[in-house]
Amino acid sequence: xxxIDTIPYWLDTRVLTSSFKAEKTLTKDTVxxxxxxxxxxxxxxxxxxxxxxADYQSSxxxxxxxxxxxxxxxxxxxxxLEGRDKISDALQKIIDQRTEPWGINVISVEVKDVLIPASLxxxxxxxxxxxxxxxxxxxxxDSERQVAEKFGEAAxxxxxxxxxxxxxxxxxxxxxxxQNSTIVIVPSSAVETMQLGGLAGLxxxxxxxxxxKKKLDAGGDRTISEASTAIDEPISEAVLAPA
Length: 243
Description:
The protein has nine helices and three strands; from the N terminus they run ββααααβααααα. The protein is of the alpha+beta class and about 240 residues long.
């Protein structure tokens, strides 16, 4: 006698995935967000999944959505944006507790995306930009403080060593004329301090620098050390000449 057999359920015991989301859900600091997540689960007891719950797939979907809304309502927006792993772990534990009586094991939960309002994105962007500018100003101020401290140490050194101050002043004047090759206005008191012989010394210094630069531009073979020697000679002559 032929028999007719029916199969009420087809249960897949492989690892399954389900996507779920929560829209316009308020965080702990009252910010509406949209969150998308993926659930990885597996049927470990087919008997419970078939007999203890009417539709285990729909039950898992609703349990996941309510758990996601509960977690969002207890989490600050900053923690949600920075610590997705913590939210995923919390969701995995909550959903697994709810689905365990149905013979279902939740393997993991992954939060895919967190969407915030466009106006809030602009405000957060401006806040981040302001924070970067503040840090840049703090770094600049700290650099100026360090430079000022070094200048203070140098001033103490020059205070007890007039020869070093004299050489430094001459070097600064020499570098300025060498790079710019223009007329530099120097106070008479500074000229007397550097002992350049007044106007004659400065004129000799400028003429020597200009002549040396023309020779270098014309393709002379003198080295930099020889050029420096040629520049120093008019300076010494100007210092020895009467003012």
